[in-house]
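Q: For a teaching session next week I want to show students how multiple molecules come together into a single three-dimensional assembly. I've collected the sequence lines for a complex. Could you give me the predicted structure tokens for the whole thing so I can convert them for display?
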Amino acid sequence: MDNNKFVEVKNLRKVYDNGHEAIKNVSFSVKKGDLVCLLGPSGCGKTTILNILAGLLNPTSGEILFDGKSVVNVEPKDRHIGYVFQNYALYPHMTVLQNVMFPLIVGKNKKSKPEAQKIAEKYMELTQITELADQKPGNLSGGQQQRVAIARALVQEPKILLMDEPLSNLDARLRLKIREEIRSLVKSVGITTLFVTHDQEEALSIGDKIILFNDGVIQQDDLGENFYLEPNNYFVANFVGNPVIDNFKVTKTDDELQGTDFTIKLADLDESRFKRSIPNGEYLLSVRPENIVPASDGILNVEVDDVELIGRERILKFTHDDSQARSLISLEVPVNHGDQVNLKMRLDRVFLFTPDGERVY
Amino acid sequence: MKTNQKKAWLYLAPTIIFVTLFSIYPILRAFGMSFQSGSLIDLTWTGFNNYKYIFNDPEFWLAIKNTLLYAVISVPVGLAISIMLAWIIFDKVKHKALFETTFFMPYVTSTIAIGIVFRYIFNGDYGMLNFLLRAVHLPAPDWIDDPAMSLTTIIIFGIWSSLAFNIVILMGALRNIDPNFYTIADMYGASGKDKFWRITMPQLVPTIAFLLTMNIIGAFKIYTSVYALFNGAAGVGNSGTTAVFYIYNKFQTVGTPGVAMAATVVLFLIILFATFLQRKMMKKIGEN
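A: Of course. Below is the structure for the complete assembly, covering every listed component.
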């Protein structure tokens, strides 16, 4: 038994009947007790993976191991998983207590009613819904329904909890509160959790680690901060970060990166950050908005199109190469709409990508 | 406010006029006529005489008895079979649309036409039903011409013809149940029985309540199927007479509209009471 690989997915592929290849050779593992976020834009295959893990879909090929044992041919009910649906799927004709008890009083291993009720009450206390026991789901708020769904998913004491966008039906403020609750709840129960979301902020805030998908392929499987500081490729750099990263087209010559209206000497870049030696040609230079700021010795002169206030910082917007770019500046820096500014990049923090998205610096 | 109200009346007018003319007026008129005697063009007040007449008429009691028996047997049995068939089609059958269309066909076909076909099927000597019954050595009664069998025949036909509408409505209700309910139940290892009794049936309660109301009202108004099965009569020696048959007979054939209207009022009250009763019942079931 390897606790570092409590859940292990190897070379997973899923091709739907219509020929669409939703998952292309995906491999990853999850540590016991971790809360892992499967992140990605809609249609990236993250929910498909969750459904394959749950046994609701069969993989086309590949291997899934729970606690070292293959579950590919195991029925969903025998996989020891709890599943929370996006719309919770609570039974509207049952009370909260009946909903939470449901998994315990059906099937082969059903328990007696008093026994089931005792277990249900334990989890209802944990999710703080004890006083709602006799209510029907229709009378509950979104957050309360969410808790009922989680309590129901936990009563069978599964080894793995799968959650499919569980916060997407909640309003913004509640989402912040519930996501913290979910994290502390699954941590207190100690259950290994896979959490699907399309919201990077959500993933960064609650995940022990994040697996970012796009187009059925893992783009990066890493700790949250690394998506920001060391993105694997152009997609990751652009998907993670708010405000989004700035991209500039550059041409590499023997000793320079030549952009539109600016030039960077190769000697000014950090030699050790190059992933490999690269030929001359077209590249994409990406800079996080906080790493391109006004300075007297700036290399790029632009006219400010707009200034947006976002709390203690401001986003300075400008047009370059016919597309909008941003600079994140402190509230105190006196820049206004229409000003001409010189922008300086922190060259030890910029990224360089090939036209097909591979990171080379 | 004032102009608003005027406009509201204007928009409501067509409905109000139609409802008054075609629903409220006939009810009141029927109620009034039940206290009158004579022919339609020469009605005179006669008090409760019409009611006295029908309550002393054994044929009226037979009609009410037949109607009640028909409603009490054909509705629950028909509904139970419909639920079973709908669930089987929904759960097990692949080409649902084809089966649904097939089942719905009787509903869009005229009862008279189907009734005539059933006359042949039910025929005591050369009917298909008796042919099959004889083949498996079961008694083959004379469905049409034996007075003792009239009501049974009507009930069987009633059950069969109620399936179409019921199944289509039930299929719609089954389709509206969130498929995730079953997915989750599967994940917890629920058996088919668990799923049917704990998820499907409770989810169907509103639909079943609706169908029960519709079916019971329909059952009390049974007329056409009797007419078609027995070639325009109410079975041999009026053995299969029903409330509406009695009303029609008194109104059109005998020519005593007052008596017919008195029977109508009684039938109306029975339907009202039955509907009220079963609404209360369904409410109780819905709460549990």
